[in-house]
Design a protein that fits this description.
The chain has about 230 residues and is α/β, with parallel strands linked by helices. The chain has 6 helices and 11 strands. It has a single domain, classed as Glutaconate Coenzyme A-transferase (3-Layer(aba) Sandwich), CATH 3.40.1080. Strands 1, 2, 3, 4, 8, 9, 10 and 11 form an 8-stranded mixed sheet that branches. A 3-stranded antiparallel sheet has the order 5-7-6. The longest helix is centred in the middle third of the chain and has 13 residues. It is globular. It starts with 10 loop residues before the first helix and ends in a 15-residue tail after the last strand.
């Protein structure tokens, strides 16, 4: 990787500088659009004491579930965790600190962090346990709670295609949390299905400008389906 070329050739190089105790954003929704190989590499490296910010916690043997198996995550901000029995067990036992966050609020906390906004008011969660310990304010007759934004040491995301300068294109619903997380990490690492030369992507179709991206790596993906229901024949 040199100059404006963001491409790296190994997952170890992609995660260089990642150490115990860091805060990570991990893209995806369920198992859709997750940086699955970066997660597997984190498991193999053995980093621990991590704080993770993710819409979900994967499943027991895939996605962030792989890190839960090794007790590598100490705290997680998430909104949807219903597919992971190990997550439930660790939360109830106190092994894992969980900050359950409404999905729209979580998305806005990340977007605000990437935009340099320290906090914002939202009506979501007022009058519920989510508001406990937070500043509240009445504005135009409606009550709001103050939500701090989120940033991370590393943002680990998945895109469909990148050019060598780190400009990104996402595909369909795999876009989900990835674009906003790309803006909110001190170091943003992206794994993609295809890398093209700079200038080959249509500038009108770029979702994340390369200015937000530090490293890009081409991977191969299992793309596991979280739940599959088929009609009986």
């Amino acid at each position: 990787m040199a100059g404006l070329n963001k491409v790296v050739t190994s997952y170890q190089e992609a995660l260089a500088g990642l150490t115990d105790g860091m805060t990570l954003m991990v893209g995806g929704f369920g198992l859709c659009g997750i940086p699955e190989n970066l997660i597997t590499t984190m498991r193999d490296i053995g980093v621990t004491d991590l704080t993770c910010i993710s819409n979900n916690a994967g499943v027991d043997d895939f996605g962030l579930g792989l890190l839960l198996q090794k007790n590598q995550i100490k705290k997680i901000y998430a909104s949807y965790v219903g597919e992971n029995a190990l997550f439930e067990k660790q939360m109830l036992s106190g092994e894992l600190e969980v900050v359950l966050t409404p999905q729209g609020t979580l998305a806005e906390k990340i977007r605000a962090g990437g935009a340099g906004i320290p906090a914002f008011f939202t009506a979501t969660g007022y009058g519920t346990p989510i508001a406990e310990g937070k500043e509240t304010r009445e504005i135009d007759g409606r009550h709001y709670i103050l939500e701090p934004s989120l940033t991370a040491d590393f943002a680990l995301i998945k895109a469909w295609k990148a050019d060598t300068m780190g400009n990104l294109v996402y595909r369909n619903t795999a876009m989900n949390f990835n674009p906003m997380m790309a803006t909110a990490g001190k170091i943003t690492v992206v794994e993609v299905e295809e890398i093209v030369e700079a200038g080959e992507l249509d500038p009108h179709h770029i979702h994340t400008p390369g200015i937000y991206v530090n490293r890009v790596i081409k991977g191969t993906f299992e793309k596991r389906i979280e739940q599959r229901t088929v009609k009986a024949r």
